[in-house]
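Hey, can you fold this?
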Amino acid sequence: MVQAIIPVPPSNIARKNQPVMAVATVLAEQLGIPLCTTCVTKTKRTPELKDVFDYDKRMETLKDAFTVQPAQPCGKNLLLFDDLYRSGATVSAITELLKS
């Protein structure tokens, strides 16, 4: 059972309406599950990965791009939510942080 939804922090912070946050918010409300917008934060600006096609370049771009607030998601079953899935690089990078 999912105990919290964690939206992936957006790459394009200039966008007024963030699709991942909007969809994750509605999903959390509809399912009655907490939304944790502070569990994972972005620590550096990165280009939108939809424009980076090489997996190794994606992973290099994501290196040290996120931090996890360990007390918040610790020991919970989480749904990591992103608005675009291509190679899984972003989800993999954040999942490794969450596991550690």
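Oh, and this one too while you're at it.
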Amino acid sequence: MSQTEPSHDTEDPNLRALLRQNRPAPALPPGFENAVWRRIESAEAKTSEMNWVEAVAAWLLRPRLAVAAAMLLVIAGASLGVAEGSRSADELAKERYLNSVSPPELRR
């Protein structure tokens, strides 16, 4: 910067004071603060009124919990499948045994 160029130093305290004095500060409308607090309270009330389904869904949509819930459902489904398969296998074994010992034609 040469000596002939004007300095645009924004750290000048006199310049800052002058700029602060000339900056217009609009007056807030009457009841502005009350309106803000009413909006905050209504927003909080809406979030507290969330029904249980939304709360559970929001809880389960967290990645760790979603994976854990999916694994739990897979394990529960596999367990039920094994139990049902075992029951079906027992019934089939009983039916085959009865057919081998006493053919259906003789059981009528």
